[in-house]
Amino acid sequence: MDGFPNELRSVAGALEVLAEHAHFGSFQTIDFRAKMLSSLLRSCADRCEDVILSFRSWMKRNPRYFDQQSIFKTKLLRYIKSATGRWHYQLTADFINGALVLAASDGEEYEPDVTPAALRQLVTRDISKEERRKRYRRMARAMSI
Prior knowledge:
The chain is mostly helical. It is built from five helices and no strands.
């Protein structure tokens, strides 16, 4: 994603070169449209770069919101709980570690680091977050009456 704003700027530069070409000098509408499009591309590139930078700074301040591994592990554990009636932390940790070892690229060593205790803590944190949401909704309903 880093290169996208730079690619837009390079296309804008190419359009400016095209607009200044001798053959297009007599066609003022093409020249005007190329310059307008070039300007729009540059402003779009600036805006994209601003959005990317602000999102990255937000992610640095709030890393837990988009922790994809935690979201995946929580969803997997919830599915296992709904299918079997139990959490099966050890089995799930072994499954995830095995999948990560298989997914490691050639020559890259992977040390299994998913433990049953970490999965248990993840579920506990997720359940307490869900309970806080429910409690907040109950309070909001009670206050609206």
